[in-house]
Amino acid sequence: GSFGKTMGGVMYMHSFTGGGTLLSLGLSIVLYTMFVWWRDVVRESTYEGHHTSVVQYGLRYGMILFIVSEVMFFLAFFWAFFHSSLAPTVEIGAIWPPKGIDVLDPWAIPFLNTLILLSSGAAVTWAHHAIIAGLKQQAVYGLCATILLAIIFTGLQGLEYVEAPFTISDGIYGSTFFLATGFHGFHVIIGTIFLTVCCIRQWMGHFSPRHHFGFE
C-alpha cells in the first residue's frame, strides 16, 4: 500500500499515465490497513483485556524507539539546512539565502502556525489531564480543540505552499524547505487522524483515569 502510494504519487507528479489510479489504490489500501489495525487494537485493549502491564511496557519502549527515529529523521533535514546555510558554496553564490531566492516572511504564516502548534499542544494537555481527572466531557472538548487547530495549521501550510515564491526544484533552499516542512505537515495530518480516533474513543467511554494508554 505505502509503496503503491509512493510510486503513484511520483508518477502523478510527473504526469505518467495511471499515476493517479495507482496513488488512489495505494492510499485506499493504507486507509483500510489503518482501520483494521485500530479495530484490532481497540478490541484487544478495551474488550478483551490483552493490554496487560507487560504489554504496555513493550508498547512504551516501542514508542520511545519510534520517537528517537523521528528525531534522527528530522535531524537529517536540519543538518542539510545548517550545512548549506552556515557555509554556502560558490555554486549558490556563496550567500544564504541563495541568490535569486525570495524568502517567506517569518512573521506572517510561519509565526501564526507556530502559535497554533503551541496552542494545540496546550489543548491536548488539557484533554490528557481531564481524562486523568475523570472529566469525560472536558477531555472531548480538549481533543476537538486540538483537532480543529491541527486542521487550521494544515490549511495555512497549504496556503503557504501556494504563495511561496520558490519551488522544491529551486536548489538546496527549496529542497530543504519543502522536504522539512512537508514531512512535518504529513506528521500533523497523521496526528490529526490519531487524535480523531482518540476523540471518538473518549466519547464512547473507552478511556478511564487508570486505563488510557491508547491516548498517551
From TrEMBL:
How does this protein lie in the membrane?
Multi-pass membrane protein
GO CC, alphabetical: membrane; mitochondrion
Task: Name the source's superkingdom.
Answer: Eukaryota
Where does the Heme-copper oxidase subunit III family profile domain lie? 1-216
**Keyword field contains Mitochondrion:** yes
One GO BP annotation of this record: mitochondrial electron transport, cytochrome c to oxygen
- According to the record, the segments passing through the membrane are 12-38, 59-82, 107-127, 139-157, 177-200
Location, primary (coarse class): membrane
Keyword set, alphabetical order: Membrane, Mitochondrion, Translocase, Transmembrane, Transmembrane helix
Q: Where in the cell is it found?
A: Membrane
A GO term, aspect molecular function: cytochrome-c oxidase activity
Show the InterPro entries listed in the entry: Cyt_c/ubiquinol_Oxase_su3 (IPR024791), Cyt_c_oxase_su3_dom (IPR033945), Cyt_c_oxidase-like_su3 (IPR000298), Cyt_c_oxidase_su3-like_sf (IPR035973), Cyt_c_oxidase_su3_a-hlx (IPR013833)
Its quaternary organisation is:
Component of the cytochrome c oxidase (complex IV, CIV), a multisubunit enzyme composed of a catalytic core of 3 subunits and several supernumerary subunits. The complex exists as a monomer or a dimer and forms supercomplexes (SCs) in the inner mitochondrial membrane with ubiquinol-cytochrome c oxidoreductase (cytochrome b-c1 complex, complex III, CIII).
Q: Which family does it belong to?
A: Belongs to the cytochrome c oxidase subunit 3 family.
Main role? Component of the cytochrome c oxidase, the last enzyme in the mitochondrial electron transport chain which drives oxidative phosphorylation. The respiratory chain contains 3 multisubunit complexes succinate dehydrogenase (complex II, CII), ubiquinol-cytochrome c oxidoreductase (cytochrome b-c1 complex, complex III, CIII) and cytochrome c oxidase (complex IV, CIV), that cooperate to transfer electrons derived from NADH and succinate to molecular oxygen, creating an electrochemical gradient over the inner membrane that drives transmembrane transport and the ATP synthase.
The protein's name is: Cytochrome c oxidase subunit 3
Q: Which organism is it from?
A: Coleochaete scutata
